[in-house]
Amino acid sequence: MKTINAQTNSRPSNAISLFFIALLVLVLATVIFGYLFSATAHAVRTRISVDERKLMSYAARDYWHSRMGPPNKDDLSRDRFATDIISLASCQPRNAKILYFYSGGTGYKKYNSNTVGFAFIKAAFGKEVVLNGQARENTYYNAKTYCKMWFNRNNKAFQDGKMWLMCEIYIHEYGHMLGLNHVDSRQSVMIASNDGKLDINTRCKSLFP
């Protein structure tokens, strides 16, 4: 009888052990699945597709073509050019190459995760710029930065796939490549910080609803 009782009393203990083992396996499976799903989700948005870049280049071309000529009295954007400078650029919006970086480090990586992207001043021009029929040296020319802009893969807007905002950033960075610095007008795409609350370019919203 004692042996039988001992075996009978061990059954609840075994059931409890099996329950906790099953629970542990379930928790581990959930953690692993969540990690894999998160990694996969982030992997989907690690770059801008060819078609997306093409649409962004159209928006940039249209925007900067519309910014040529003297401003009217109601224009407070301060991001205009007196001449059709975009026609002088050897790197047109459709040719601009997008590169990527991860923030938090040295060099280009020194930017924090709030930095969406960057480009270099007058990087849309080659070694020489023909102006009024005369070739002039582009003192800003650098083969490493020519016709390139960089986007931050650590930025939340990029990771979340807010392509309408990335479109505005594309226009912004190409503005630098044409020679513009930041301005303090919230009516300009060249404002230093676009937190996504500025609806400057309706074309981007229509291309990426």
Description:
By secondary structure, this protein is mostly helical. 41% of the residues lie in helices and 10% in strands. It is built from five helices and five strands; from the N terminus they run ααβββββααα. The chain has helices at residues 2-44, 50-65, 156-159, 163-178, 202-207; strands at 97-101, 117-119, 128-131, 134-137, 148-152. Strands 1-5-2 form a three-stranded mixed β-sheet, with helices on one face. It has a two-stranded antiparallel ribbon with strand order 3-4. A hairpin with a 2-residue loop joins strand 3 (128-131) and strand 4. Helix 2 crosses helix 4 (163-178). The model is unreliable at 1-8 and 37-44 (pLDDT under 50).
